[in-house]
Amino acid sequence: MEKKEGWKTLPEGDILEGGSSLKFKTGNWRSSKPIHHPEKCINCLLCWIYCPDGAIKVKDGKIEGIDYDYCKGCGICAHECPKDAIEMVIEKGMEK
Amino acid sequence: MKVAKTANEAFAEAMRQINPDVVAAYPITPATEIVQIFSQFVADGLVKTEFIAVESEHSAMSACIGASASGARTMTGTSSQGLALMWEMLYIASALRLPIIMAVVNRALSAPINIHCDHSDTLGARDSGWIQIYSENVQETYDNVIQAVRIAEHPDVRLPVMVTTDGFILSHCLETMDMLTDEEVKEFVGEPPERENLLKSAREDKPITIGALDLQDYYFEHKRQQAEAMKNALKVIPEIGKEFGEKFGRSYGFFENYRLDDAEVGIVVMGSTAGTGKEVVDEMRKKGKKVGLLKLRIFRPFPFNQISQALSHLKVVGVMDRADGVNSYCGPLFPEICTSLYDLPERPKVVDFIYGLGGRDIKKSDIEGIFNDLLKIAETGKKEFNLKYIGVRE
Fold it and tell me: Which A-chain residues 21-80 have CB contacts (< 8 A) with chain B?
């Protein structure tokens, strides 16, 4: 368990080191998961442009996969993909 | 040095002498002159200030927040609707613990639109976490701004401060006042105390996040810190007021007791009306009436115990509210005074008088009438009313 500081020791005025959102992994908010199918993908990068969380991993102009530490499962990438190369799958335990 | 100044001029002169790093402001009657005069000081090269002319008061306070968060000594000025438009940012400035100084010229809130004095603007901001200092005259307006810098920046406090003056009654009224020299002010306000987190960020060339999302797990702790800072201000404000007195001959506390110690009845009043009230006290004392006055200078933090003690011996207290709570029973100051008296074993009776809305004159005869009402309650032991409106046509 993370030890949380009390008001007497917490840095005042809500001032933190920069970039602290990297430590805040939002992947566990997800109820459905995007699966990338490279064989259908044409690397148009529309998913990368539209992803509100920067969770599409790109290297040298090519989709490398999805960063599940931060992907919240909104499904925008799958919706925007012109080639149906991203499929949304219900997460385990989230089925009806 | 004795000079003749209006409160707006005094505000501007104090700002020139404080020489803040940043001033961001938007003009509004009757506070316009403060920043107008100050902008001339900037244009003339008399200050090092970065002056930001913005497009609204919301932007003014936002710019002040950004500047102050970077460690800059930051000031602004506004009034009434301008303060209202800052509302969202007021809470952010105080919760991020930014020692911004704001000159507020008290003016009635619309509607109906009105440009004259009442205290509805700043009293409405009572829970915004800003320290609030009220001024009786031009001299106090000037002295309060200079002290405000030290109070706001004190490491145990670090809260924004609004210094108020009464719209037109003081803002546009020439009075003789004693102005300190530039050197005296410079020495008194000093350099802002260093903020370790800002320094560390600069030293290590690492950016910081200010005002990040704070959910169920941390928000409460940060608010608790803010509450403690306001409590600490109760200790710091009289210390600074005393130091100011030792250096310049005019000492300040939470409030001024005027012929209150042996009084039977007394009024509690803020701002310029205290001056009129003192005249009335003197005149009625000559006639043998045991009346007194408490002029409240510091409304936030509210000096709860000190007020309770100062009023405890009275038979009747009259609270003079220059704003209406529009709540069916009282103005904003009344419940605060009542609460401070509640736990006394024997407490005075308290009645509220709402007066002076929208700049309506408050005359000596009005205040004499208030004292006579209080004396009657003291004599009969009966309150025939809890709230009375003074000076309004039936």
Answer: 21
